[in-house]
Request: fold
Amino acid sequence: MSLLSKPLNIALLVLACVCSVFFLRLQTLQERNKRLQETYAQQRAASDQRQQVIERLQQQITHLNEQQRQSAEAQAELERLAQNRLATLRKLEDENDQLRQWAAHRLPAEFGRLRDRDALSGANAYRQRLRDT
Reply:
């Protein structure tokens, strides 16, 4: 062997070792990059799902707030109608002496007992109530 070829062989061997180390390092980095990309994709999908849930909940809140507003409006309207009817009844009662006398009398006992009975829970309960009376 010539004098020049021995150092060249050593240099090539060192170069091959360095290249091999860099190649292994590159493979490691590529595998790590792949794992990180998969993790990122999973995290992104989970984040998207959470965002969809948040948006659905916000829509439900908006819908419930609208229903609550409509319910409050309906309640106010019903209260206004009830007050109007009550005022009309009082006005009629004040105008009509016969109606005032009728309203002052108590209801017959049979009507009062209607409120004292428990609610029926089926046909058997109805038959039992008929037997008891």
In short: Residues 10-103 form one domain. The chain has a mean pLDDT of 86.
